[in-house]
Amino acid sequence: MGERYALAEGLRAYGLIAGMWVRSSMTYRTSFVLTVFGNLIVTALDFVAILLMFSQVDSLGGWSLPEVAFLYGLSVTAFGIADLVLGSMDVLGGRIRDGSFDTLLVRPAPVLAQVGADHFALRRLGRITQGAVVLGYAVAAIDVDWSAPKVLLVPVMVISGAAIFSAVFVAGAAFQIFAQDAAEVQNAFTYGGTTLLQYPPTVFGKDLVRGVTFMLPLAFVNWVPAAHVLGRPYPIGLPEWTAFASPLVAVACCALAGLAWRAGLRSYRSTGS
Predict the structure, then answer these.
(1) How many CB atoms lie under 10 A from the CB of residue 37?
(2) Dist. CA 252–CA 257, nearest whole Å
(3) pLDDT tens digits, residue range 7-28?
(4) What angle do CA 140, 85, 194 make, to 5 degrees?
């Protein structure tokens, strides 16, 4: 009962803080629309780079353009959702340095909800929109014999992937509490992780693929389940049932991230300022 109450309070606090930032951003609607459009264009440049590659080659690591677009759309859409919900957590190190993190600790609201909703930015919808458009193109263009499990896997990959990326954001924020400031380290695993997943695993070394499968299981965002959908060999010879393991991996990642966050809060020592 206590945990359910804490969760409800956290969601309520997150909604109130995020709503405040949304109302603030909508004060100047023209600026907001231009910012969202600009964000969409900037994120689209990543896919333009892939298109330029395919203007010179027929395949990338043995994968066709629609197949790579499928990976890209899944990765960007899932990451975009996590970035919209928890993308502000990478500034936690700055709050710790200037002492403003102490203010969050004394407020009657869960700290994670306050940090996650801080500077909530609807402009990040541009990334989600762009990723969803590419994903829609890929689903229509890939040569796949669609079955009910394969169709179901697409939204499961997006939701599970968003949860996995969210866990990485939270774990990265916890690490910033220990390290005092490590935003760039966190960004290497969040923004770097989504960029990695935009390309097929066949273009990377086996050690790297093992690392993002067993150590930081980003491969379950798209590489592993997408292999089932596309009829491709599974990364590093994983068994076929792992294609449906993304929700379990997401739950495990979120649980571990929650433990890391609690450990970080317990270890925090005020700057005194």
Answers:
(1) 13
(2) 9
(3) 788 888 888 888 888 888 788 7
(4) 50
